[in-house]
Design a protein that fits this description.
Length: about 250
């Protein structure tokens, strides 16, 4: 059940709009209940379509990184519902050529309740999705970006990593919950991905890592819908009730 005080995040690699009609219909079905959309692989044409659909109700923040000398380009877009103050945005990983991209939105959900939302698209190459020095550096750099204070923080996106990678485990070591692990999510991919790479069937690529400091209750799920070669991650945060201190009468 959706409560008016819920803050719901959807993260999805939109596959450069390969299934644009299905994608837009799905996002339309979710847009009244979602507070923030975190999209990866939003090239110019896909971004235009998303702007037309969401622009009236959401403010868009966008990062494009063209990795010098590399074929990869990274397009990351975060749409925040109007009325939710965005106090700052920051681009991450720009200084690591063979890493991906990260876009930070610092939000003020209510007086005294801040949230740092980080939309990540990790380096896709090499295709084994296991550790490389650049992927280790990528995770370390992402974690450093949120290490200077105790603001509740959510990292979401397509990390292009398998669960056994040390690059994934670094988040747990830094005190984050790995919701893919906690909720026993069997896969974040689907047949659209597996048909393209039948000899390299990978079940995971997308993650949600949270450090909420007991300030939020939360629920997490993955939607099994064929609108991309990735599945949408759905994370709902709800303000946790304050701890009541019992006063002992003398």
């Amino acid at each position: 059940m959706h409560h008016k005080n819920d803050f719901t995040i959807m993260s999805l690699n939109v596959w450069y709009g390969e299934l644009l009609g299905e994608l837009l219909a799905y996002i339309t079905s979710k847009k009244d209940s979602v507070s923030a959309f975190c999209f990866q692989e939003t090239d110019h044409a896909t971004l235009q379509a998303l702007d037309e659909l969401l622009g009236q109700d959401f403010a868009r923040h966008h990062m494009h990184k063209n990795a010098a000398g590399e074929p990869e380009q990274f397009y990351v877009a975060t749409y925040i519902r109007h009325g939710i103050p965005v106090t700052s945005t920051t681009n991450l990983l720009e200084d690591i050529p063979k890493a991906g991209a990260g876009l930070v939105c610092e939000l003020q959900l209510s007086p005294g309740k801040a949230l740092r939302l980080v939309n990540v698209h990790g380096q896709p190459q090499p295709g084994h999705k296991l550790d490389t020095p650049e992927r280790i550096a990528q995770s370390q750099s992402l974690l450093r970006s949120a290490a200077h204070d105790d603001t509740p923080t959510v990292f979401v996106g397509d990390f292009n990593l398998l669960p056994e990678a040390h690059s994934v485990q670094l988040f747990s070591a830094a005190g984050y919950r790995n919701l893919i692990d906690d909720y026993s999510i069997a896969t974040t991919r689907n047949e659209l991905a597996w048909q393209r790479y039948p000899d390299n069937k990978q079940l995971h690529a997308d993650y949600a890592f949270t450090r909420l400091n007991n300030l939020f209750n939360y629920d997490f799920s993955v939607d099994d819908v064929p609108v991309s070669d990735h599945l949408p991650l759905m994370l709902t945060l709800r303000h946790a009730p304050p701890l009541h201190h019992v006063r002992v009468l003398e």
